[in-house]
Amino acid sequence: LAKTTQPISMDSYEGQEVNITCSHNNIATNDYITWYQQFPSQGPRFIIQGYKTKVTNEVASLFIPADRKSSTLSLPRVSLSDTAVYYCLVGDMGGRGSTLGRLYFGRGTQLTVWP
Amino acid sequence: GAVVSQHPSRVICKSGTSVKIECRSLDFQATTMFWYRQFPKQSLMLMATSNEGSKATYEQGVEKDKFLINHASLTLSTLTVTSAHPEDSSFYICSARDLAGGTEAFFGQGTRLTVV
């Protein structure tokens, strides 16, 4: 299973764009890249998922280069409520011998947004 | 997104007793659910994979006789912490994936277990 590496912490100010990069050098062909957000004493919340190139939804964008060995979560115009831990995970999408759903969390990135 | 509900959200028990935590997928069916444990200031650690109608698969180092998992239906998995001790105090989180609807996993709100 692919191991991920992220910065331990990041700081930003309200209204700024935040980019968190994750390295996953041994990502497998069937692996998707998924980002979760976690507030203290809550379960992780799904943010965005992608396989390659760029994915955008109402809360974030995910940039994945052609080699898929890294990915960048982009949060536009962060607010104080975006202060949380952000996890980057890779996991397969199914098929024979699938470990679908088994996600191994790294240390995550503590994002702190200041006023 | 799909909803996964855990109950209770918080429980305090005496050392030596057993505690059951429920994980339900409210609006989808999940043949597989997952249990995680999270200690303060640490990441989530996968404990086991709960398979409907069959035995759970435990991660290395997780005691299967201490953490009993039952997945009796397509919407319910339970984790029982047997003979709990203070070191079992932790935040337990379950997740499930709607195999009919996508590839993202949905997490419950977590259960804070305190063993006194």
Characterize the structure shown.
The complex is a heterodimer of chains A (about 120) and B (about 120). Chain A has strands at about 10-15, 20-25, 30-40, 45-50, 55, 60-65, 70-75, 85-90, 110-115. Chain A is mainly beta and about 120 residues long. Chain A has a 5-stranded mixed beta sheet, with no helix packed on it. Chain A has a 4-stranded antiparallel beta sheet with strand order 2-7-6-5, with no helix packed on it. The N and C termini of chain A lie far apart (about 40 Å). Chain B is mostly beta strands and about 120 residues long. In chain B, about 0% of the residues lie in helices and about 50% in strands. Chain B is built from no helices and 11 strands. In chain B, the strands form 2 sheets. In chain B, strands 2, 4, 5, 6, 9, 10 and 11 form a 7-stranded mixed beta sheet that branches. The mean pLDDT of chain B is about 90. At the A-B interface, β3 and β4 of A face β4, β5, β9 and β10 of B.
List the main descriptive attributes of the protein structure presented here:
heterodimer; A: 115 residues; mainly beta; 5-stranded mixed β-sheet; 4-stranded antiparallel β-sheet; 9 strands; globular; B: 116 residues; 7-stranded mixed β-sheet; 11 strands
In short:
Chain A is an all-beta fold.
Write the layout of secondary structure elements.
The complex is a heterodimer of chains A (115) and B (116).
Chain A: E1 9-13, E2 18-23, E3 31-38, E4 45-50, E5 53-56, E6 61-64, E7 70-75, E8 84-92, E9 109-114
Parallel strand pairs in A: 1-9
Antiparallel strand pairs in A: 2-7, 3-4, 3-8, 5-6, 6-7, 8-9
Chain B: E1 4-7, E2 10-13, E3 19-25, E4 32-38, E5 44-51, E6 57-58, E7 67-73, E8 76-81, E9 90-96, E10 106-107, E11 111-115
Parallel strand pairs in B: 2-11
Antiparallel strand pairs in B: 1-3, 3-8, 4-5, 4-9, 5-6, 7-8, 9-10, 9-11
